[in-house]
Design goal:
The chain has about 280 residues and is an alpha+beta fold. The protein has three helices and eleven strands. The strands form three sheets. It has a five-stranded antiparallel beta sheet, with helices on one face. A four-stranded antiparallel beta sheet has the order 9-8-10-11, with helices on one face. The longest helix has about 55 residues. It comes from Oceaniferula flava. Keywords: Membrane, Transmembrane, Transmembrane helix. This is Prepilin-type N-terminal cleavage/methylation domain-containing protein.
Length: about 280
Protein backbone atom coordinates (compact mmCIF):
# COMPACT_ATOMS: atom_id res chain seq x y z
CA UNK A 1 0.00 0.00 0.00
CA UNK A 2 2.81 2.35 0.77
CA UNK A 3 4.34 1.74 -2.64
CA UNK A 4 1.04 2.51 -4.44
CA UNK A 5 0.55 5.71 -2.51
CA UNK A 6 4.07 6.90 -3.34
CA UNK A 7 3.53 6.23 -7.08
CA UNK A 8 0.24 8.16 -7.03
CA UNK A 9 1.93 11.10 -5.30
CA UNK A 10 4.77 11.06 -7.86
CA UNK A 11 2.33 10.97 -10.80
CA UNK A 12 0.35 13.87 -9.33
CA UNK A 13 3.54 15.94 -9.01
CA UNK A 14 4.44 15.18 -12.62
CA UNK A 15 0.97 16.18 -13.81
CA UNK A 16 1.12 19.44 -11.92
CA UNK A 17 4.54 20.34 -13.45
CA UNK A 18 3.35 20.17 -17.15
CA UNK A 19 1.09 22.38 -19.38
CA UNK A 20 -2.34 21.54 -20.57
CA UNK A 21 -3.40 21.84 -24.20
CA UNK A 22 -5.53 24.87 -23.37
CA UNK A 23 -2.58 26.65 -21.78
CA UNK A 24 -0.42 25.94 -24.83
CA UNK A 25 -3.11 27.30 -27.18
CA UNK A 26 -3.51 30.45 -25.08
CA UNK A 27 0.27 30.93 -24.96
CA UNK A 28 0.55 30.55 -28.73
CA UNK A 29 -2.30 33.01 -29.22
CA UNK A 30 -0.66 35.59 -26.96
CA UNK A 31 2.65 35.09 -28.73
CA UNK A 32 0.97 35.57 -32.11
CA UNK A 33 -0.71 38.74 -30.90
CA UNK A 34 2.62 40.05 -29.60
CA UNK A 35 4.40 39.27 -32.87
CA UNK A 36 1.56 40.92 -34.82
CA UNK A 37 1.75 44.05 -32.68
CA UNK A 38 5.52 44.23 -33.16
CA UNK A 39 5.08 43.78 -36.91
CA UNK A 40 2.42 46.50 -37.09
CA UNK A 41 4.58 48.91 -35.08
CA UNK A 42 7.56 48.21 -37.32
CA UNK A 43 5.42 48.62 -40.44
CA UNK A 44 4.00 51.90 -39.14
CA UNK A 45 7.52 53.14 -38.38
CA UNK A 46 8.67 52.23 -41.89
CA UNK A 47 5.68 53.99 -43.44
CA UNK A 48 6.31 57.05 -41.30
CA UNK A 49 9.98 57.19 -42.23
CA UNK A 50 9.12 56.70 -45.90
CA UNK A 51 6.54 59.47 -45.70
CA UNK A 52 9.10 61.78 -44.08
CA UNK A 53 11.62 61.01 -46.83
CA UNK A 54 9.04 61.65 -49.56
CA UNK A 55 8.02 64.93 -47.92
CA UNK A 56 11.65 66.01 -47.70
CA UNK A 57 12.21 65.12 -51.34
CA UNK A 58 9.15 67.12 -52.35
CA UNK A 59 10.32 70.11 -50.31
CA UNK A 60 13.79 69.89 -51.83
CA UNK A 61 12.28 69.74 -55.32
CA UNK A 62 10.08 72.75 -54.61
CA UNK A 63 12.97 74.75 -53.15
CA UNK A 64 15.18 73.85 -56.10
CA UNK A 65 12.44 75.02 -58.48
CA UNK A 66 12.08 78.39 -56.76
CA UNK A 67 15.87 78.82 -56.42
CA UNK A 68 16.23 78.22 -60.16
CA UNK A 69 13.68 80.95 -60.87
CA UNK A 70 15.34 83.29 -58.36
CA UNK A 71 18.79 82.90 -59.92
CA UNK A 72 17.33 83.31 -63.39
CA UNK A 73 15.56 86.58 -62.62
CA UNK A 74 18.64 87.96 -60.85
CA UNK A 75 20.75 87.46 -63.99
CA UNK A 76 18.37 89.01 -66.51
CA UNK A 77 20.29 91.67 -68.52
CA UNK A 78 19.00 95.09 -69.45
CA UNK A 79 18.22 94.16 -73.06
CA UNK A 80 16.23 91.02 -72.19
CA UNK A 81 12.83 90.63 -73.80
CA UNK A 82 10.05 89.15 -71.64
CA UNK A 83 6.69 87.96 -72.91
CA UNK A 84 3.84 86.42 -70.90
CA UNK A 85 0.77 84.75 -72.40
CA UNK A 86 -2.05 83.09 -70.45
CA UNK A 87 -4.83 80.95 -71.88
CA UNK A 88 -7.67 78.86 -70.56
CA UNK A 89 -7.35 75.08 -70.64
CA UNK A 90 -9.83 72.36 -69.70
CA UNK A 91 -10.03 73.01 -65.97
CA UNK A 92 -7.48 75.72 -65.28
CA UNK A 93 -5.37 78.57 -66.65
CA UNK A 94 -2.01 77.82 -68.25
CA UNK A 95 0.77 80.24 -69.13
CA UNK A 96 3.89 80.58 -71.27
CA UNK A 97 6.63 82.91 -70.05
CA UNK A 98 9.26 83.63 -72.72
CA UNK A 99 12.74 85.12 -72.23
CA UNK A 100 15.04 86.32 -74.99
CA UNK A 101 18.55 87.80 -74.98
CA UNK A 102 19.17 86.01 -71.69
CA UNK A 103 22.56 84.26 -71.84
CA UNK A 104 22.28 80.55 -71.12
CA UNK A 105 24.89 78.00 -72.14
CA UNK A 106 24.86 74.33 -71.23
CA UNK A 107 25.79 70.87 -72.49
CA UNK A 108 23.08 68.78 -74.13
CA UNK A 109 24.22 65.25 -74.84
CA UNK A 110 27.89 66.26 -74.36
CA UNK A 111 27.40 68.98 -76.98
CA UNK A 112 27.79 72.63 -75.91
CA UNK A 113 24.63 74.58 -76.71
CA UNK A 114 23.59 78.21 -76.41
CA UNK A 115 19.94 79.15 -76.17
CA UNK A 116 18.78 82.33 -77.87
CA UNK A 117 15.34 82.10 -76.22
CA UNK A 118 13.76 80.01 -73.48
CA UNK A 119 10.15 79.30 -72.51
CA UNK A 120 8.77 78.45 -69.09
CA UNK A 121 5.39 76.80 -69.68
CA UNK A 122 2.73 74.82 -67.86
CA UNK A 123 1.33 71.72 -69.56
CA UNK A 124 -1.89 70.03 -68.43
CA UNK A 125 -1.86 66.23 -68.14
CA UNK A 126 -4.75 63.82 -68.65
CA UNK A 127 -5.26 63.34 -64.93
CA UNK A 128 -5.79 67.07 -64.41
CA UNK A 129 -2.38 67.79 -62.91
CA UNK A 130 0.14 70.02 -64.65
CA UNK A 131 3.86 69.90 -65.37
CA UNK A 132 6.22 72.86 -65.56
CA UNK A 133 8.58 72.53 -68.52
CA UNK A 134 11.50 74.58 -69.79
CA UNK A 135 12.04 74.79 -73.56
CA UNK A 136 15.22 75.96 -75.28
CA UNK A 137 15.41 77.59 -78.73
CA UNK A 138 18.54 78.16 -80.78
CA UNK A 139 16.90 81.06 -82.67
CA UNK A 140 15.11 84.18 -81.54
CA UNK A 141 11.34 83.72 -81.38
CA UNK A 142 10.35 87.22 -80.23
CA UNK A 143 10.70 90.52 -82.02
CA UNK A 144 13.42 92.81 -80.70
CA UNK A 145 15.79 95.49 -81.97
CA UNK A 146 17.85 93.01 -84.01
CA UNK A 147 15.33 90.34 -85.07
CA UNK A 148 11.73 89.95 -86.12
CA UNK A 149 11.43 86.60 -84.39
CA UNK A 150 10.56 83.16 -85.73
CA UNK A 151 7.11 82.10 -84.55
CA UNK A 152 7.40 78.68 -86.20
CA UNK A 153 10.65 77.70 -84.52
CA UNK A 154 10.75 74.40 -82.65
CA UNK A 155 12.66 73.91 -79.40
CA UNK A 156 15.81 71.83 -79.66
CA UNK A 157 15.59 70.75 -76.00
CA UNK A 158 12.88 70.45 -73.35
CA UNK A 159 13.24 69.73 -69.63
CA UNK A 160 10.47 68.99 -67.12
CA UNK A 161 11.30 71.01 -64.02
CA UNK A 162 8.52 69.75 -61.76
CA UNK A 163 5.69 67.25 -62.24
CA UNK A 164 2.15 66.72 -60.97
CA UNK A 165 1.34 70.17 -59.65
CA UNK A 166 -2.26 71.00 -58.98
CA UNK A 167 -1.97 74.69 -59.91
CA UNK A 168 0.67 77.12 -61.15
CA UNK A 169 -0.32 80.62 -62.25
CA UNK A 170 1.86 83.55 -63.26
CA UNK A 171 1.32 87.30 -63.41
CA UNK A 172 3.52 90.36 -63.85
CA UNK A 173 3.42 93.77 -62.20
CA UNK A 174 3.80 96.87 -64.38
CA UNK A 175 6.21 99.30 -62.76
CA UNK A 176 4.50 102.38 -64.21
CA UNK A 177 0.96 101.55 -63.08
CA UNK A 178 1.71 99.01 -60.29
CA UNK A 179 -1.07 96.82 -61.68
CA UNK A 180 -0.82 93.05 -62.00
CA UNK A 181 -1.76 91.30 -65.22
CA UNK A 182 -1.51 87.83 -66.73
CA UNK A 183 -0.29 89.23 -70.08
CA UNK A 184 2.90 91.05 -70.97
CA UNK A 185 3.82 91.76 -74.56
CA UNK A 186 7.12 92.73 -76.14
CA UNK A 187 6.91 96.48 -75.58
CA UNK A 188 10.62 97.02 -75.03
CA UNK A 189 10.15 97.30 -71.28
CA UNK A 190 10.52 94.82 -68.48
CA UNK A 191 8.00 94.26 -65.68
CA UNK A 192 8.79 95.25 -62.13
CA UNK A 193 7.84 91.91 -60.59
CA UNK A 194 6.95 88.40 -61.69
CA UNK A 195 4.68 86.46 -59.32
CA UNK A 196 3.98 82.73 -59.21
CA UNK A 197 1.04 81.12 -57.40
CA UNK A 198 1.62 77.40 -56.88
CA UNK A 199 -0.44 74.66 -55.28
CA UNK A 200 1.41 71.38 -55.30
CA UNK A 201 -1.45 69.15 -54.10
CA UNK A 202 -5.25 69.62 -54.17
CA UNK A 203 -5.34 69.96 -50.36
CA UNK A 204 -2.23 72.10 -49.86
CA UNK A 205 -2.15 75.86 -49.44
CA UNK A 206 -1.24 78.24 -52.25
CA UNK A 207 2.43 79.20 -52.20
CA UNK A 208 3.19 82.68 -53.56
CA UNK A 209 6.67 83.57 -54.79
CA UNK A 210 7.55 87.08 -55.95
CA UNK A 211 10.66 87.77 -58.02
CA UNK A 212 11.96 91.28 -58.69
CA UNK A 213 13.27 92.19 -62.11
CA UNK A 214 16.06 94.60 -61.22
CA UNK A 215 16.41 97.44 -63.79
CA UNK A 216 19.79 97.30 -65.54
CA UNK A 217 21.53 99.25 -68.26
CA UNK A 218 20.89 98.05 -71.78
CA UNK A 219 24.27 96.99 -73.23
CA UNK A 220 23.09 97.82 -76.76
CA UNK A 221 22.32 101.42 -75.73
CA UNK A 222 25.71 101.71 -74.03
CA UNK A 223 27.51 100.52 -77.17
CA UNK A 224 25.58 102.98 -79.36
CA UNK A 225 26.51 105.83 -77.03
CA UNK A 226 30.17 104.84 -77.15
CA UNK A 227 30.09 104.69 -80.95
CA UNK A 228 28.37 108.10 -81.16
CA UNK A 229 30.95 109.67 -78.87
CA UNK A 230 33.83 108.09 -80.82
CA UNK A 231 32.68 107.70 -84.44
CA UNK A 232 36.26 107.22 -85.69
CA UNK A 233 37.02 104.53 -83.17
CA UNK A 234 39.54 104.65 -80.35
CA UNK A 235 42.59 106.94 -80.80
CA UNK A 236 45.68 104.76 -80.55
CA UNK A 237 48.24 107.29 -81.84
CA UNK A 238 49.03 108.58 -78.36
CA UNK A 239 50.13 105.17 -77.23
CA UNK A 240 52.47 104.39 -80.20
CA UNK A 241 55.89 106.00 -80.78
CA UNK A 242 56.24 106.28 -84.54
CA UNK A 243 59.66 108.04 -84.69
CA UNK A 244 60.41 111.62 -85.56
CA UNK A 245 63.08 111.70 -88.33
CA UNK A 246 62.52 112.86 -91.93
CA UNK A 247 62.06 110.20 -94.52
CA UNK A 248 65.42 109.37 -96.00
CA UNK A 249 67.24 111.86 -93.75
CA UNK A 250 70.85 111.59 -92.79
CA UNK A 251 70.76 108.57 -90.55
CA UNK A 252 73.92 107.30 -89.04
CA UNK A 253 72.97 103.69 -88.38
CA UNK A 254 71.21 100.72 -89.79
CA UNK A 255 67.82 101.32 -88.14
CA UNK A 256 68.32 104.75 -86.69
CA UNK A 257 66.49 107.95 -87.43
CA UNK A 258 65.47 108.24 -90.98
CA UNK A 259 63.53 104.95 -90.94
CA UNK A 260 62.58 103.17 -94.15
CA UNK A 261 64.69 102.35 -97.09
CA UNK A 262 65.08 105.80 -98.53
CA UNK A 263 68.22 107.88 -98.60
CA UNK A 264 69.93 107.64 -95.28
CA UNK A 265 67.61 104.79 -94.36
CA UNK A 266 68.13 101.12 -93.73
CA UNK A 267 70.20 100.24 -96.75
CA UNK A 268 70.62 103.51 -98.57
CA UNK A 269 73.23 106.15 -98.07
CA UNK A 270 74.04 106.36 -94.41
CA UNK A 271 72.23 103.09 -93.88
CA UNK A 272 73.35 99.87 -92.34
CA UNK A 273 75.46 98.74 -95.22
CA UNK A 274 75.84 101.93 -97.21
CA UNK A 275 78.47 104.65 -97.01
CA UNK A 276 78.58 106.17 -93.58
CA UNK A 277 77.98 109.84 -93.35
CA UNK A 278 80.49 112.24 -92.00
Amino acid sequence: MMIVRRQNATSKRLQRGGFTLLEIVIALGLMGMLVGMIFRVAQSSMKLSQSVVETQNEMMEQNAFFNLLKNHFEQIPGNAVINLESYEARDRTLFTLTFQNVPMSFNWGDVPMTAEAIELSTVEQRDGFIDVVLRFYDVKILEDSTSTGDDDAEPFAEITLIEDMWMCDCEVVDGSTMEADTFWDNSGQQPLQVKFYCRFTPTSDIVQQTFWVVPKENPEVIMRQIIQQNPAGPDLSNGIDVGGGDTGGGGGGGRGEGGGRGEGGGRGEGGGRGDRGN
